Amino acid sequence: MRELVLALLDYLKPYEKKLSPKQAHRRVFLAKFDFTMEYKPRCGNTMVDVLSEKMEFAAISQPTGSLLELIQDGLSHDPTAKSLIKLSNEGKTRRFLLDRELLYTHGHHLYVTYYAKLRKEVMKECHDSRWAGHLGMHCTLALLKDQYYWPHMGDDV
């Protein structure tokens, strides 16, 4: 079977573009395996691989322990957050909810105060993610809006 694959690759050689060294290395590596490639339409493929799906940044945008502690600490220093917490505890607002000492809005978006440059730190986390690379303004804003909330977020980004 390997000989057949190599013969087919040699036959197609005039029709393909020149391979980069990385592509050539991968081609040699894949030639060692006995496999067949088969097209499956998306509707018939129930086990779609991760690479063909839209990348979700949920794991990237989740706040980590130290950041959560800073956000929680910032709530006690921000007068706006204090008044929102008071309204939530009195049941006078449905927009904000206090859960495990953190303030959330509708859709379970975490409220971030302006205390100690927290907003800048959260934006940095979403923009400079090691998993997503340096995202542009629109992608960073979308990533922030998925998990966080603060007034005039778009202006800050």
TrEMBL record:
The lineage of its organism: Eukaryota, Viridiplantae, Streptophyta, Embryophyta, Tracheophyta. GO terms for molecular function: RNA-directed DNA polymerase activity. Residues 117-157 form the Integrase zinc-binding domain. It comes from Gossypium australe. This is Reverse transcriptase. Keywords: Nucleotidyltransferase, RNA-directed DNA polymerase, Transferase.
